[in-house]
Structures are given as structure tokens and as C-alpha cells.
């Protein structure tokens, strides 16, 4: 039951790789688990946002990182957007970026 994880583009990959080391390590651990167990890990690791959009909830000593993803045919998980969370609520701007990218790859 292996899943393939890919990034929307190289810019998304580079921005997530540039996260502080603790947050990045959490992201990598969760991503590896998703590749073997599937994307539906549930809280506190993943959370649904509706309409096929989900988030990875990476947590480190430096703070929290979030990466939005969607699932595609053929057991593909596409990381659409990532950011370091600075507020309690998910910023609307970050959610809009992810939803727009989701539309681009699903059409």
C-alpha cells in the first residue's frame, strides 16, 4: 500500500525544505508515514479541510508548519503549499493558494 509523494513545483519543495530543522524533521517523518500507511493519518498529523484538501501538521520546537495536500488517482499525494504558522487560525491567503493549486492540477 505505497503512496507516491510529490510537490506541486520545485518552489514549494524548496520552501518546505527551508523550514527550521525541528519542523522540517516532523514534516519528513509524517510524509514518510503517509507514503507507507496512506494520507489519512488523522489528528494530530493530518486534518481535512474539505473538498479533497488536507493539511500536514508539522510541529517542532521552533513552531508549527503546515503543508496542504490533495490526493490524486494512482496513490499520488501532491503537496500544494507550505507555510510556517504564526497565528492560531489558518490564514485565508495560505488556504486560497492551496485551493487554487488544487484546482490547477485537478482540471
Question: How many beta-strand segments?
Answer: 5
* Global Rg: 13 Å
End-to-end distance: 26 Å
Any low-confidence stretches, pLDDT <50, length ≥5? none
Give helix % range: 25-40%
Number of helices: 3
Keywords:
single chain; 107 residues; alpha+beta; YaeB-like fold; 5-stranded mixed sheet; 5 strands; 37% helix; 35% strand; globular
Describe the structure.
With 107 residues, the protein is an alpha+beta fold. It has a single domain (4-106), classed as YaeB-like fold (2-Layer Sandwich), CATH 3.30.2310. Helix content is 37%, strand content 35%. It is built from 3 helices and 5 strands; from the N terminus they run βααββββα. The protein has helices at residues 10-17, 21-37, 92-106; strands at residues 4-7, 46-50, 53-60, 63-72, 76-85. It has a 5-stranded mixed β-sheet. The longest helix is centred in the N-terminal third of the chain and has 17 residues, at 21-37.
Short summary of the structure?
By secondary structure, the chain is α+β, with helices and mostly antiparallel strands. The protein has 3 helices and 5 strands; from the N terminus they run βααββββα.
SSE layout and pairing:
Elements: E1 4-7, H1 10-17, H2 21-37, E2 46-50, E3 53-60, E4 63-72, E5 76-85, H3 92-106
Amino acid at each position: 500500500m505505497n503512496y507516491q509523494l510529490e510537490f506541486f513545483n520545485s518552489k514549494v519543495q524548496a520552501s518546505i525544505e527551508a523550514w527550521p530543522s525541528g519542523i522540517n524533521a516532523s514534516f519528513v517523518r509524517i510524509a514518510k508515514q503517509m507514503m507507507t500507511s496512506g494520507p489519512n493519518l488523522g489528528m494530530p498529523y493530518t486534518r481535512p479541510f474539505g473538498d479533497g484538501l488536507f493539511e500536514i501538521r508539522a510541529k517542532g520546537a521552533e513552531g508549527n508548519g503546515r503543508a496542504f495536500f490533495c490526493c490524486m488517482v494512482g496513490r499520488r499525494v501532491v503537496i500544494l503549499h507550505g507555510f510556517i504558522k504564526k497565528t492560531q487560525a489558518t490564514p485565508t491567503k495560505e488556504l486560497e493558494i492551496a485551493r487554487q493549486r488544487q484546482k490547477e492540477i485537478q482540471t
